[in-house]
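PROTEIN DATA CARD
Card holder: SGNH/GDSL hydrolase family protein
Chain length: 377
Origin: Actinomadura rugatobispora
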Amino acid sequence: MTERWAAGFRSAVISPYEKIKLSEPRGFAGQTVRQVLRPAGGGERLRVRLTNLYGREPLTIGAARIAVGKAGDEIVPETDTALRFAGSEQVTIPAGGELDSDPVDLAVAAGTDLALSLYLPHETGLATYSHMPMRTAYVADGNLASATGLPGAERVEARFYVTGIDVLAPEGSAVAVAFGDSWFEGVGSTMDADRRSVDALNERLDRGWVVNQGIAGNRLLTDEIGRHALARFDRDVLAVPGATHVLVHFGINDLGLPGMAGLPPATAEQLIDGFTELARRAHEAGLTILAGTIGPYGGAVYPGVSTPEGLAVRRRVNEWIRTGGPFDAVFDVARAVENPDDPDFIRPEFDSGDGMHLNDAGARAMAESVDLRALAL
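Structure generated from the sequence above:
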């Protein structure tokens, strides 16, 4: 059987130096960082992609190990495997750089928790990171990369220095990229439970899988929290190994976040132009593109986010997505989770509590809005 590298797991990253961040950036020195990653796709071998994309100084990896996760910060010790880089167990990644580990013979099934342990011996400066992954990282002093557990470790709700795991999968394995905002990254879902909308969608699939490139607060048109969608499309979609499809959900932050600074929301014309450009670039690359309608956020508790002007634009853009957009298919997130008595608001049983994000049940409803025949992985 012919095999090829395909993305089994992805994590979109932001700069710790951005003006607006939803979690506090940090660095490390003489510490081990252990992070649990759950690939949506499996294979006989794997490689890990590390990043210093937004670092301002070289990043030294003193040791890197991968193992099957047991629970929390614990690993299954007999699976513990050293990662090497061009044959070496230590490597320095230059500022702005990224690299893949050498392949390792560790077979992984879809949905298996893997624990990545990085020993960072020197002062790192602020870390390139994923700021709202809904997974806990464990930080302990010293080189404990191969330790079975990290009792007393500091718990941090973020993910650092890793953007993906590739797996050696059968030729033809289809990979969809969930490219969007917090409604993909998972804000509002249960911490460490893998109940994001993307996880629920993967549970519905009997072939192929979806990797998550959501960034909470990300916008279609403007850099603010992470590079905007049009700017990061090449890196976070086109460069994903094995990508065949892309699902997009953007717009809430283009409409809501400007109001926090007293600015007007994006116009319908601007959003339509942006979505049209995403579709053009996806089709040019041979990808199938599915677009989600913009979810309701009328009950957002954040000052300035929910405005009559922004909500009116949402309704207009959603009608365009449903009836005239240049997409291969549409998944109607808004209809799936809206309050039927007030469609600008999330249905109460799907609301995480802030009027802007979905809880576990809402995330599942979002996943169920995707027609698997249209996705056709």
